[in-house]
Amino acid sequence: MPADMSAAPTHVEAAFGLTTAPRAMPLPTGILKTTLDHCGAAIALLLLSPVFAVIALISYLSQDGSIFFAHTRIGKGGKEFGCLKFRTMVPKAEEILAQILASDPIAREEWNTNFKFEHDPRITRFGAFLRKTSLDELPQFLNVLVGEMSLVGPRPITRKEGALYGRHFAAYKSIRPGITGLWQISGRSDTTYDQRVALDVSYIRDLSFVRDVQILFLTVLTVLLRRGAV
Fold first, then answer.
1. What pTM value is reported for the model?
2. Taking Cα atoms as reference points, which of 138, 137, 141, 114 lies closest to residue 197?
3. Measuring CA to CA, how many Å separate 94 from each of 32, 34, 39, 100, 209?
4. CA 187, CA 105: separation in Å to the nearest integer?
5. In contact, 228 and 191? CB cutoff 8 Å
6. What does 108-124 look like in DSSP terms, one character per residue?
7. C-alpha atoms less than 13 angstroms from C-alpha of 136 in its C-beta half-sphere
8. What totals of helices (H) and strands (E) does the chain contain, helices first?
9. pLDDT single digits (tens) 111-160
């Protein structure tokens, strides 16, 4: 990661007009957002508990006993946390990734550009279903409940990805990352990484409780229509 995070990717700003610094979140907005997070996560976990149980059982039986996966992501204030997901990859996925990157220059270029593969050989059949339906992200309601994430916010990123945010990395760290956000309702995998950064910064710049409710509603429609899923 570059030492100077203030060196912004100017092509992102030029393309999307991201020149306005994010404003501080008004206190009422913060209170409403936190209340929505805690109540929404608790209700979701209660209502979705049967779905959790079924997915956990199938994962346990079909994926060598592995159910959850906690990937290290950057949260508010730059603090790292374990972002929870149902496991969707084969065992030793990181070792397999290292082998792919070391032996396949085309795959390495794709990974370095988007931090993902269009067709990832590490994903299991059941894992592909979980990703397609976004069910793999349900455990993140636990992250919301303990205050590490929000229902709506920028997509949680790795420390390495922070370099791609340039000077906008400071804006990213100013709030909690979200289970959903503008990126998820704007195409997800059909967007470029620069567009993803632009959407995150746009959300942070124009924070509002009403907008969060709108994004949550549109997220449900997006998941049901399966648009832009990985």
1. 0.80
2. 114
3. 39, 34, 35, 10, 38
4. 27
5. yes
6. HHHHHHHSS-SS-TTB-
7. 22
8. 11, 4
9. 877 777 778 888 888 888 998 888 999 999 999 999 999 999 999 999 98
**Which residue's entry shows tokens 């997901």?**
85
Long-range contacts of 160-163 (CB under 8 A, 24+ apart): 160/1, 160/115, 161/115, 162/1, 162/5, 162/74, 163/1, 163/2, 163/5
Distance CA 24, CA 84 (A): 28
d(CA 84, CA 64): 18
What is the Cα–Cα distance from 19 to 91, expressed in whole angstroms? 43
What pLDDT shows up at residue 63? 66
**Residues 6 or more apart whose Cβ sits within 8 Å of residue 134:** 223, 229
Indicate the DSSP class of residue 190: G
Backbone angles phi, psi at 33, to 5 degrees: -65, -45
32-65: per-residue pLDDT in tens?
999 999 999 999 999 999 999 999 998 888 766 6
